[in-house]
Amino acid sequence: MRVTTYGTRGSYPVCRREVVRYGGNTTCWLVEAGEDLVIIDGGSGIVSLGNELCARYPKGRKVHLCMTHPHWDHVMGLPFFAPFHVAGFEIEVHGADSEDKPLDRVLETQHKPKSFPVAFKQLAAKITFDRLTAGETRALGAVGLKSVQLNHPGVDLGYRFETARGTFVIFTDLAPIADNHLGAGMAERADGRQKAFEDDYTNALVEMVRGADLVSYDTNFTDQEIQGRAHWGHSTPTHAIDLLANLDEPPAVVLSHHDPDHTDDEMDAIYADAQEQGRDRGVEVLVAKERGVLKL
Amino acid sequence: MKLRFWGTRGNIATPGAHTVELGGNTTCLEVQLQKRRSLMLDCGSGLIAYASSLMNRGEAKSEPPIERHFHLLVTHFHWDHVLGFPFFHPLHVPSSRVHLYSAFPAEQLEDVFRSLFDGTYSPLRDLDNLAAEVTFHQIPEAGISLEGARITHHPVDHSEDNYAYRIEHEGKALAFATDHEARDRPRNVEVCDFVKGADLLVHDAQWTAEEYPKHVGWGHSTIEAAIDNGVAAGVRQLLLTHHAPHHSDDFLRVYLSRVLRKLDLAALAPRVELAREGVHYDV
Q1: Which residues of B touch A (CB under 8 A)?
Q2: Which residues of A touch B11 (CB under 8 A)?
Q3: Sheet harboring A157-163: ordered strands across?
Q4: Which one, of B232, B240, B155, lies nearest residue B204 by Cα?
Q5: Of A193, A219, B9, B230, which has the most beta carbons under 10 Å away?
Q6: Is B47 in contact with B36 (CB distance < 8 Å)?
Q7: pLDDT in tens, B21-70
Q8: What does the alpha-carbon distance between residue B9 and residue B15 come to, in Å, rounded to a whole number?
Q9: Which of A194, A159, A164 is closest to A69 using CA atoms?
Q10: Confidence of residue A275 (pLDDT cuts 50, 70, 90)
């Protein structure tokens, strides 16, 4: 199992000399496991991934695309994903309906007239949709998929990808849950039973990461920066380490969804701090860099 | 009048070491007028960087808050010309007055920009919930005056309705023709006429001559055709923009110098350069 980061940045693409080491493209990951190719999210990073896939597979092939949620930084690259425009590619899109739009409408709307020159229905690839509800599981070829709803505005899914060779979990865009119920339906579910709701939520996350090798976690903020911003829907390296440190055999964590204002130098410092914290608490800490490859 | 590019890239923001010189942000230009407010052309991702620069200069958070007006002129509604807007920080500042303009009917402009805040693609739901006051305006065919500048527009040749702008101020003229396909059509003659004699022309130049045959009708020009237009229109300076995401800084620099060498433009001008993010150009 091979995990490659094509987009590490949160919110919007950042084009500056000061971010070229960690990368300015927004969220996109590729999981390669045997014959199976699974892409996670269609941020701006998916553009160069798509160009690579077209070069590697000129006649096309089957690709899974797992959408965590439809915010711009996770979908903006999709209209420019070259395999959509090449006959022979077969792309199965997995993800949840958003509150206002079913999954297929989320993608179609990006191709609406005036916004993009090619209508979704005109795309050359065969594109199918697999609408998921949080908690459901799937088999993507030989890759086992599990899903969970994350604490972020709207419907946002965390995914676990399990193979014989290793297990990768991605939690992108999630905020701490304490007194902070952002996800669609969460405030209602917490009503009158806040403690139980929060415990259930945390336990569900723990079960998702238990036994995994690697967990990509949204660590947009530092401990200082999140003050007053927990409702924005993002976490810190401390939150990631808190979740993992209690496990008997904690997976390694990969810091990701870097804040657009964090320069490479600031990221070096954030990473060093998190590594120190991880060492103290028995969690190996890695950091997402564009084009970084992790082998499991 | 000065011109500063905040975004020069076409299609989609393209970060990376291979684009840092010319810039990876999508279309956004700042027309700086002496002692007046700037006119912003298009709302690509460069608009986010422009807003950050205001924050860094402290101008957007003056105490007590003074009304701050922004003039954003839009050519058309493809993603690379609007997607900076949902991240335009002044929208969250109560003293901001954001004025959007285009050649399209104001309701159409409003529809497009409101749809960016539908609650699906970001947590922001409904433009009216944001702190700033946002208004929508149609620039009539006869043009308008803004901040002492005269602004006119003319339709160009693109896959979607799209307009070139001409901005005249203190005897100087700046013309902006992005997402225009310069080819043997009456529309191109009209566009050359519209930008005629400009001191500075910013022209779409997405393709090389070799790439063009596969992209006829996509609504973008070759570097060669953009130069032809600059020559035909008799402009003083020509800046090529809407750089293709797959063209690196080095590729474009080498390619353009080869084209210019072949043309031997020395005698007839205009001065031809690749538009570069962060650089101020005198008009």
Answers
A1: 9, 11-17, 19-20, 23-25, 45, 48-49, 52, 76-79, 82-84, 86-87, 112, 118-123, 159-160, 218-219, 245-246, 277
A2: 80
A3: A137-140, A143-149, A157-163, A166-171, A214-218, A252-256, A285-287
A4: B240
A5: B9
A6: no
A7: 999 999 999 999 988 999 999 999 999 999 999 876 555 455 555 679 99
A8: 10
A9: A159
A10: very high
pLDDT in tens, A242-261: 999 999 999 999 999 999 99
Sign of the alpha-carbon torsion through A39, A40, A43, A44? negative
The token duo for B130 is 């944001």
Kind of pairing between the strands at A28-33 and A36-40:
antiparallel
DSSP state letters, B180-237: ---SSSHHHHHHHHHHTT-SEEEEE--B-TTTGGGGTTSS--BHHHHHHHHHHTT-SE
Q: Dihedral angle at the C-alpha atoms of A231, A235, A241, A246, nearest 10 degrees?
A: 30
Map tokens 């809407």 to a residue. B242
**Residues composing chain A:** 296
Residue linked to tokens 């007590």? B64
- C-alpha dihedral over A162, A108, A152, B128, to 10 degrees? 170
CA distance B242 to B164: 14
Grade residue B263 by pLDDT with cuts at 50, 70 and 90: confident
Amino acid present at B28: C
For residue B151, the SS3 value is strand
Rounded to whole angstroms, the Cα distance separating A283 from A152 reads: 25
Cα B123 to Cα B154: distance, rounded to the nearest angstrom: 36
Torsion, CA A14, CA A270, CA A41, CA A116, rounded to 10? -10
Residues of B in contact with A20 (CB under 8 A): 15-17, 20
- The chain-wide mean pLDDT, for chain A, equals 98
Element (H, E) at A83: none
Amino acid at B182: A
